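Recap from last week: sequence in, structure out.
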Amino acid sequence: MSLPDSFDPAERGERARNFFLEGYNCCQAVLLAFADVLEANGLADETLLKTAGSGFGGGFARLREVCGSFSACTMMAGFIRPATTPGMEERKANYALVQEMAADFRARNGGSIVCADLLGLRDRRPESPAPSERTPEFYRKRPCPEIIRNAATIVAEKMKEAAR
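Predicted structure tokens:
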């Protein structure tokens, strides 16, 4: 995959954070930070990324399971090291990348890839499917913007490594 000369992991992290602050869910925000690169490489477009990531917010539709931004990392691993054949070698390389991303994600975000853990939720009962209203109070209580920035930065770093 070719990357623009100006490709900067920190800037991609900031893009993802800004998409979240605009109202996209955590998964969509990370995916959209790379829409231009994927589109330029003929791999995906913005509409596909918005659609594919729509159910992953809140740890799979507010179930508070795997963080949506880490789900986006896993999706992006498929573009960085795709496993497009039934053989084991491609899958092994893809899984290795996802595991590297998980280790990086945990190190930067308090030791977990699970939404409930990241948010400090003790009660793991299913929540209403209605998303939380994005108010200033919502953003003050949530570590999400920084977690999303970290997730996109990890993806961008792995993309740069793969492009070398």
